[in-house]
C-alpha cells in the first residue's frame, strides 16, 4: 500500500529534510507541500536540492489543503501546528515536528513557550525507556497504531537518549546532570538571517539560553521521568558553533556510589544493543558530528571518570535527521505497521 502524504512547512529546513527522506521512502508518496510566504512557488525553486519533487508547487498551509491524505507531517513554527491539528481527521496520521504537542505539563508549556496549550501526543523517540526504572519498555510500544505523534526537539532527544539507560538501570543519579552542547545553526530554522550567519556565527562559538532558560529542559526532564528519574535536575547549556548541521552533546551525571565501571557501561550496552539507529561506540572511542550527517543515527561515546565519580556521555547527531525528520519518519513507520527502518539510512556522508 502507498500512503498519500502532505508536508506542511515544506519550504523550511525541517520540511526540506522530511521531503528528502520521504522522496526515497518506498511506501510514501508526497502529494501536497505547503508553505507560508513561499506559497505559490515551485518547491524546487525554494528547495533546489529536491530534484525528484520538481512537479510539486507550494500551496497555503490550511486544513483544507492538508485534508484527504493518509499522513500529514507538520514542520511549522511553534503554535502554528496546534492551530491546525484540531481540524484534521482523527484517522489521519499526524506527525508534528514542532513543540506544540511534546509537553504533558501545561505549566511547563506556559513557562517555556506560552500561548495556547494543545496537550501531549505520543513522543517520537522510539528507543527511549518509558514506564520507570522497573520497566524495560520503550517508547516504540506506545507508537504502534497511534495517529498523533510529537517528534522531539533535537537537543532534547539527544540528551534524553544519552542519559535514559543510566537512569533506567539505576546506575546514575538524576539530581545533578550537566549537559553542554555544540549545535549548528540549522537548528534555528531558515529564519536566521544570512548576514547574522556570516558575520556572527562563522568563526565563533556563541552560548545562548544560558542558565536554565532553554525550552528543551522540561522536555528532557519529562523524558527522564519516563525512564524512572525522580525530580531530575539538569544544567543545560547550548553553544552555537559554525557547522551547518549537527549536535555534539556532552552530558555528565554522578554515578550511584558503589557502582563499578563495568556495570555503568553495561546499562548503555543493554539498552542499545539491538537498536538500529542508536550506536554505542567501543570503549575509548568518541563520536564526531561529521559521521552522522545525513544519517538517522545517534552515536554515543561513554567514559567513566572515576576520580570525579561521574559518567561522561558524548552524543553526536544530525539535528535535521535523527533529531527531527528521521525521527518523524521512523515513528510514522512504527505507527503504520511498516518496518521501523524503512526509508532511513544508518550511513552518513563523508567527508
Ligand atoms: N531545524 C531543526 O533542526 C529542527 C526544527 N524543529 C521544528 O520544526 C519546525 C520547523 O522548523 P524549521 O524547518 O527549522 O524552520 P524554518 O524557519 O526553516 O521553516 C519554517 C516553515 O514554516 C513556515 N511558516 C512560517 N511562518 C508560518 C506561519 N505563520 N504559518 C504557517 N507556516 C509558517 C515557513 O514557510 P515560508 O518559508 O513559506 O514562510 C517554513 O515552511 C519548528 O517547529 C521547529 O522548532 C524540530 C527539531 C529540529
Ligand atoms: C541553533 C538553535 O537555535 N537550535 C534550536 C533547536 C531547535 C529544535 O530542536 O527544535 P524545536 O525548536 O522544535 O524545539 C534551539 O536550540 O532551540
UniProtKB/TrEMBL annotation:
It catalyses: N-acetyl-L-glutamate 5-semialdehyde + phosphate + NADP(+) = N-acetyl-L-glutamyl 5-phosphate + NADPH + H(+). Its main location: cytoplasm. SUPFAM superfamilies: Glyceraldehyde-3-phosphate dehydrogenase-like, C-terminal domain, NAD(P)-binding Rossmann-fold domains. The keyword Amino-acid biosynthesis applies. GO terms for biological process: L-arginine biosynthetic process. Residues 4-136 form the Semialdehyde dehydrogenase NAD-binding domain. GO terms for molecular function: N-acetyl-gamma-glutamyl-phosphate reductase activity; NAD binding; NADP+ binding. Gene3D superfamilies: Dihydrodipicolinate Reductase, domain 2, NAD(P)-binding Rossmann-like Domain. It is found in: Cytoplasm. CDD domains: AGPR_1_actinobacAGPR_like (cd24148), AGPR_1_C (cd23934). Belongs to the NAGSA dehydrogenase family. Type 1 subfamily. NCBIfam families: argC (TIGR01850). Catalyzes the NADPH-dependent reduction of N-acetyl-5-glutamyl phosphate to yield N-acetyl-L-glutamate 5-semialdehyde. This is N-acetyl-gamma-glutamyl-phosphate reductase. It comes from Microterricola gilva.
